[in-house]
Design goal:
Length: about 190
Amino acid sequence: MRNVRDYDRFSDQELAELLSEADRNAFSQIFKRYNRILFVHAYKKLEQQEVAEDIVQEVFSVLWQKRENINVATNLSGYLYTAVKNKALDFIARKKTEARYVDSLKNFVNNAVVLTDHLVREKQMKEIIEREISKLPAKMRAIFEMSRNQHLSHKEIAVKLNLSEQTVTDQIKKALKILRTRMGMCFFIMM
């Protein structure tokens, strides 16, 4: 049995090998070693603290979930940096796409070319979304609505409901996953 303090002395390669064997202490040491520096790396690219934290958390989550299939023994730091960089670039690309969509939508509205069919679809979609949100478990729904309707930060919601910020983040992620799953077919049918 290894002493937890021994993990400080292990090389990245040794930690990666132990990680592939589901060694939680190795994972903890990797997290401890790289969490802060990966956050800084993501933050420099995005300049958004919460998004940078989410990206780093997601990278570590994937690392643990796919620990048996990911070959990081030869270059753990390279893998982690690349994963964070790719997630940051995906986020930036998504934001650019959203911005183009919003600009297009503004252009559409400004030109007053509003078709009745679009208004009907929008109304139907809003009703479907509201109905699906109302089906969420009560606590999850309350947290989700505080975030989306009242525009409160995860921290503000946590304070207001006397919960940890991580619990709030987890609940919002679960709500989005549930809504994406439930509504995927609705979007397809409506288009």
